[in-house]
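Transposase structure dump, as promised
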Amino acid sequence: ERMLRIYFLQQWYGLSDEGLEDALHDSMAMRAFAGIDLAVEDVPDATTLLKFRRLLNEHDLTRKLFDE
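structure tokens r here:
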């Protein structure tokens, strides 16, 4: 669920993977939406975000998420 929330933030704000990583570090509101507590865990890095996005695309899940 967390990675999907992060993916939605990326789509809503039109951010690159690196831009999203930076935004998650800078924005407490984005971290709260994504369910990230910096005291417990770190923000996913740009490579992790890229791999997750590619996984969604490979299985045609982005279309399914936004079409329904």
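The chain has five helices and no strands.
lmk if u need the other ones
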